[in-house]
Prior knowledge:
Distance between the termini: 32 Å
Number of strands: 5
Structural class: alpha+beta
Strand content: 15-25%
Helix content: 10-25%
Strand order of the largest sheet: 1-2-3-5-4
Bound molecules: adenosine monophosphate
Largest sheet: 5 strands, antiparallel
Radius of gyration: 14 Å
Shape: globular
Number of helices: 3
Amino acid sequence: MTIFEKIVAGEIPCNKVLENDEFLAFHDINPIAPIHVLIIPKQCVKDFEEVSGEIMAKLTLFTQEVTKHLGLDKKGYRLVTNIGNDGGQEVPHLHFHLLGGGKLSWGNLAKK
Ligand code: AMP
């Protein structure tokens, strides 16, 4: 069971932003931006490689609700999903990092 499944099950608390029957958005415990929210499907899918188009379509609509709820839709934000080892994914449960609340930096992320 991933830590995110435990959050969905209510075994671990989270600072919830929004949820519906299928998706949950909550604040990242270790934020790297003024606003750093994780958006997950409640049913565990390992990563972006394994998610269906049907779930992604609904996840897109849910994510748009979250950005409006947080007032990020007009100001801008970044949406990131890490995949696998090179992507730096730590939790094997698909999640999108919603980052915003200020001007975000951008640069060369690759380390040899
Ligand atoms: P990733 O490296 O893409 O798998 O991201 C995992 C994210 O989950 C990291 O940004 C962590 O800070 C975050 N995280 C881990 N445990 C928790 C938790 N209990 N509540 C909120 N965020 C968490």
